[in-house]
Design brief:
single chain; 260 residues; alpha/beta; Rossmann fold; six-stranded mixed sheet; four-stranded antiparallel sheet; 10 strands
């Protein structure tokens, strides 16, 4: 399949089901989405709507699906170095130093180049000087920076972020949002973020994809045409946030817990 001009990732008519002993659960239904090179996409929706499942399909961790999921001109069927992923938990290997955690996914035949690449990415996430530290010696935010460096070290086309700041305190979360934007602007990597935090989705995303309850579908795509850095208290920011909340309020039979 030839991707549309400017598109990095193309999703067409994606359906994903899970089978249990009793029945069949439709997790994703008729998902259609084009994501452009260097774009920052936020995905929001209720718990259980299939946001993380969609990310896992893109990552190649779920290959039993119907439809097309194409990166470049290649159908995604398995994990690959062209996609990096950061989870809510940092998932660092506790027995390895930071430099070795970052280097874990790199090929062994790079020689001295491997050392340079690892150091470059440690510097990128602002952890210069912590190369020989162990994960237990880092704060939660610092550990997530290491996870981001590890995901970026192979220069993926797409970085997938599955609630990466969900376990952090409020202030650290805001700092990490600013940090991921800095990295995005420096690396020009296409980023896809799954989050429950609508404020975070608007602050980070070029577009916000709102998913419906299960089966998960793309209910609406909200463009965020705001200059960066964004002011969360500005009238335009608040209006976009309200427009996204309204998509949840429209389903009166399934109230959505929220906080503004």
């Amino acid at each position: 399949m030839q991707s549309p001009a400017g598109s990095t990732l193309v999703i067409q008519n994606l359906n994903k089901k899970f089978k249990t002993r009793e029945n069949e659960i439709i997790a994703l239904q008729d998902i259609n989405l084009n994501i452009h090179q260097g774009e920052f996409i936020s995905i929001v929706g209720r718990s259980g709507c299939g946001k993380s499942t969609l990310l896992r399909v893109i990552a190649g961790l779920e290959n039993d699906y119907e439809g097309l999921v194409v990166l470049g001109n290649k159908q995604i069927s398995r994990p690959g170095l062209d996609r990096g992923m950061v989870f809510q938990e940092h998932r660092l290997l506790p027995w390895l130093k930071i430099k070795d955690n970052v280097a874990f996914g790199l090929a062994d035949n790079l020689g001295g180049e491997k050392i340079r690449i690892v150091q470059e990415h440690i510097n990128l996430v602002g952890l210069t000087g912590f190369e020989k530290a162990y994960p237990h010696q880092l704060s939660g935010g610092m550990a997530q920076r290491v996870a981001i460096a590890r995901a970026l070290v192979n220069r993926p086309q797409v970085l997938l972020l599955d609630e990466p700041f969900g376990a952090l305190d409020a202030l650290t979360r805001i700092q990490m949002q600013q940090e991921i934007l800095r990295i995005w602007e420096a690396e020009k990597t296409t980023m896809i973020l799954v989050t429950h935090d609508i404020d975070e989705a608007v602050y980070l995303g070029d577009r916000v994809v709102v998913m419906s309850s299960r089966p998960g579908t793309v209910k609406k795509i909200v463009p965020v045409a705001l200059a960066r850095p964004r002011d969360r208290s500005s009238y335009d920011f608040i209006q976009i946030r309200k427009a996204i909340y309204s998509e949840f309020f429209a389903d009166a039979e399934k109230p959505f817990a929220y906080a503004i």
